[in-house]
Design goal:
Elements lengths: L11 E2 L4 E9 L6 H9 L13 E9 L5 E9 L18 E7 L3 H5 L1 H11 L5 E6 L10 H10 L3 E4 L8 H14 L6
Parallel strand pairs: 2-4, 2-5, 5-6, 6-7
Antiparallel strand pairs: 1-2, 3-4
Length: 188
């Protein structure tokens, strides 16, 4: 069972009998942030690309163990540069962040430190998870070793996912919930 140190956790909603956790999902456009959210929520990902305008907000709930129910509020932030000026307001209240890059696009990997800086400026102290998405596709440009080294540099957990197949998607969000509830990075 998950040990939550503060039983009077302010994120607990007795009406839902669940912990409410806001997660900010960051990364360049077209890395699969919206697809990860869709994969978690419905198991189905969009077949066409529709750019996120500003932010998309979704909720989903599940048990992270036999007794701990969470309701995740997923804030899928637009990654295109022309949304830089509106994104800061969307970080408020986040308990954890997920920074996503595309394993097939080295440029999105190189931009991860900029996303970390933006997170630290707008939500100081909020822990994050690094996610390499599109694991199911060929022509990979970023190795697991490179991504693990970057995650280690920032003391973050790293996952490789496929929104298309669902591989590791639930594990990412489950780990995010655990981090938020325990307030730190934990072994999973």
């Amino acid at each position: 069972m998950l040990q939550i140190e503060n039983t009077l956790n302010p994120y607990y909603d007795p009406d839902e009998n669940a912990y409410r956790i806001k997660i900010s999902i960051l990364g360049n456009g077209r890395v699969g942030k919206t697809s990860l959210c869709s994969s978690l929520e419905t198991g189905i990902i969009p077949q066409t690309y529709d750019m996120t305008v500003g932010v998309d907000i979704a909720t989903t709930q599940f048990f992270i163990d036999a007794q701990t129910k969470v309701r995740l509020i997923l804030w899928d932030l637009a990654g295109q540069q022309h949304f830089d000026s509106v994104r800061p307001a969307f970080y408020k209240g986040a308990k954890v962040a997920i920074i996503v890059f595309d394993l097939q696009n080295r440029g999105t990997f190189y931009d991860v430190p900029a996303w970390i800086r933006e997170l630290n400026i707008n939500a100081p102290g909020v822990p994050f998870i690094l996610v390499g998405n599109k694991k199911d596709l060929k022509n990979r440009e970023v190795s697991t070793e490179e991504a693990l080294a970057l995650a280690k540099k920032y003391n973050a957990m790293y996952f490789e996912t496929s929104a298309k197949t669902g591989e590791n998607v639930q594990n990412v969000f489950r780990y995010a919930a655990v981090i938020a509830l325990q307030g730190t990075t934990v072994a999973f």
